[in-house]
Amino acid sequence: MPILITNIKELLQIRESGITKLSGAEMAQLPLINNAWLHLDGDIIKGFGTMDTCPTLPNAQLIDATGKTVLPAWCDSHTHIVYAGNREQEFVDRINGLSYEEIANRGGGILNSAKKLNETTEDDLFAQSKLRLEEVMQQGTGAVEIKSGYGLTVDGELKMLRVIKRLREAYPIAIKATFLGAHAFPKEFKEDHSGYIDLIVNEMLPAIAEEKLADYIDAFCETGYFSVAETERIMDAGKKYGLRAKIHVNQFTAIDGIAACVKHDALSVDHLEIVTDEDIEALKNSNTMPVALPTCSFFISIPYTPARKMLDAGLPLALATDFNPGTTPSGNMNLVVATACIKMKMTPEEAINAATLNGAYAMRLSNSHGSITVGKSASIIITKPLTSYYQLPYAFGSNLIDTVIIEGQII
Ligand code: NIG
Ligand code: FE
């Protein structure tokens, strides 16, 4: 049934079609209409305007949004929602003084999650993961990228990607899948990096391509993980199968990985807690979207991405959760937006742009998601009554969401 939402106090993020990403300067503006209506027809936005032009639609379900804000559903371009078990013990170990690196060196971290994942059946993994997907949909996420990377074996990586495919089939939310076989070196390949990359290139990638299980390819380009040269080999291999790169880079150290990603026309570079002037120069005038993950910085107490410096240099920026068991056990985009404002000094307008349209770009979904545009996906958030949208980041601990609609379905 069509849906007509009336008396919307603020309808946010109105954009012409064809705008696929926003630069730092453009992100300062968040176009809106006060006292608006919005018509959703099936899974698309059919029309909107001010209340004096509101159509009469006898067959539509009416939603009165008096006092409420409506905005596009969040576009979370970086998650690891599919995982087995959790890492609560490492959380407590960190409280007691160990660092993320020390825990990883003891066999914890990614290898700990990989062990659990390989001991978990596909059905169990699906059952655990779907609860998290349902939770983030309730929290207003309408498009999401999900990575593999806790298998680190042919079977484990395929299992994860098959679960992502099942999630896509079971839920209305748009899902993009990213193959992250290059997340860490398994113990048996610690001294044989090229052996593990051979396994990724010669066995994992062909099997994944055969089943059409991935849209993108990722690697953890970091000191102690995948070097820049190793990451380039992964990006080259992905390209042969039409998988564009979305790369974990500059989380702990800057090793010139960003320039290499730009050279390979990566769709996004993600984390960026440590950013040099050279990194900023490399990103200028590129097609590569920088993605910040502020709740990861919050959870493991590392620096925040220098968003101000990047935006003031004119770069675009997207925000995502990084939902994963080790560094960000939260998929709450509302908290990401608030943290970006509070800790990274992004304005509410910049943060909302980063979490909607630019997030959609980082999944190649900005032709269909991320703004209120006729013909785009009917995926929106209706808030509780707000004094203004500033309340979204301001009242950071409150649940301000009243209703979430994804692809025309009330969640
Ligand atoms: O994005 N940095 C690499 N990967 C994940 C964390 C993985 C883990 O600790 O399980 C991240 O933060
Ligand atoms: Fe990540």
From TrEMBL:
It is found in: Cytoplasm. 4-imidazolone-5-propanoate binds at R87, Y150, H183, Q251, T327. HAMAP family: HutI. GO terms for cellular component: cytoplasm. It catalyses: 4-imidazolone-5-propanoate + H2O = N-formimidoyl-L-glutamate. Binds 1 zinc or iron ion per subunit. Catalyzes the hydrolytic cleavage of the carbon-nitrogen bond in imidazolone-5-propanoate to yield N-formimidoyl-L-glutamate. It is the third step in the universal histidine degradation pathway. InterPro entries: Amidohydro-rel, HutI, Metal-dep_hydrolase_composite, Metal_Hydrolase. It is an enzyme of class 3 (hydrolase). Zn(2+) binds at H78, H80, H248, D322. GO terms for molecular function: imidazolonepropionase activity; iron ion binding; zinc ion binding. Pathway: Amino-acid degradation; L-histidine degradation into L-glutamate; N-formimidoyl-L-glutamate from L-histidine: step 3/3. Residues 69-410 form the Amidohydrolase-related domain. Fe(3+) binds at H78, H80, H248, D322. Its cofactor is Zn(2+); Fe(3+). It comes from Flavobacterium zepuense. Its EC number is 3.5.2.7. Keywords: Cytoplasm, Histidine metabolism, Hydrolase, Iron, Metal-binding, Zinc. One of its GO terms (biological process) is L-histidine catabolic process to glutamate and formamide. The keyword RNA-binding does not apply. Gene3D superfamilies: Metal-dependent hydrolases, Urease, subunit C, domain 1. Belongs to the metallo-dependent hydrolases superfamily. HutI family. This is Imidazolonepropionase. N-formimidoyl-L-glutamate binds at Y150, N324, G326.
